[in-house]
Amino acid sequence: MKNKIDHNSPIPIHIQVESYLRELIEQDEYQEGKFLPNEVELSKKMGISRNTFRAAMDRLVLEGLIIRKKGVGSKVNKTKIKTTLTEWDSFSREMTTKGKLLKTISKEVQWVEADEEIAAALDVKPGTAICRLERIRGVDEDPVVIFISYFHPRVGVKSDEKFDGRLYEILQDKYYCIPEISDEEIGALPCSGYFSKKLNISADIPVLFRKRKVLNAADKILELCYAYYRSDKFLYTIRIKREDMQ
């Protein structure tokens, strides 16, 4: 693995450094917890300024791939959860296949009146009684995501429903509502006091926002879900296949 920079390359230096770091952190020793090499030493070996090296390192820190502690050093962030957008499954099942043992840290079930936004999304009249489920999920006691779900009356959620278990298995096995389609929107939000408290993060960490409409095979909506992820703990990867340009 080369740690030299090609100053004659058309590829910008900081991009070369970033590429090197991405390869470096995949090595077994760093995946197992070894501290990364000292920034000053590496920048000298590469023949670049420390500021250039740090700019590349900052990018990986921002993505949550590296944890940097002042006066201690930098390590690979092994708590980062990755998910793909090539197919859809329940969050619990998807994370289980990746070896992540998630737990529900807190859960609250309420019956609320649908405001105009919720009513429009669920295609019901404003003021309609809707079951609202809020869950905070994470690894051990470390929160990763807030899920806020609103269920269409057609699901038939019972007033005493506790939602103990996997959500989509409950919808299918108990209410005979089979989720088949997920329409999604993804964006980013600043960290408000609400997110800071619920997700235990500082105000400088943005929140990944995911809006999901879950529909059955007849294209009828079952659930509207707002999900708010810690961006330092969660990463989406997207694989897109190019269509024939002709």
Automatic annotation (TrEMBL):
One of its GO terms (biological process) is negative regulation of DNA-templated transcription. PROSITE patterns: HTH_GNTR. SMART domains: HTH_GNTR, UTRA. Residues 11-79 form the HTH gntR-type domain. Pfam families: GntR (PF00392), UTRA (PF07702). GO terms for molecular function: DNA binding; DNA-binding transcription factor activity. Keywords: DNA-binding, Transcription, Transcription regulation. This is Transcriptional regulator, GntR family. It comes from Anaerocolumna xylanovorans DSM 12503.
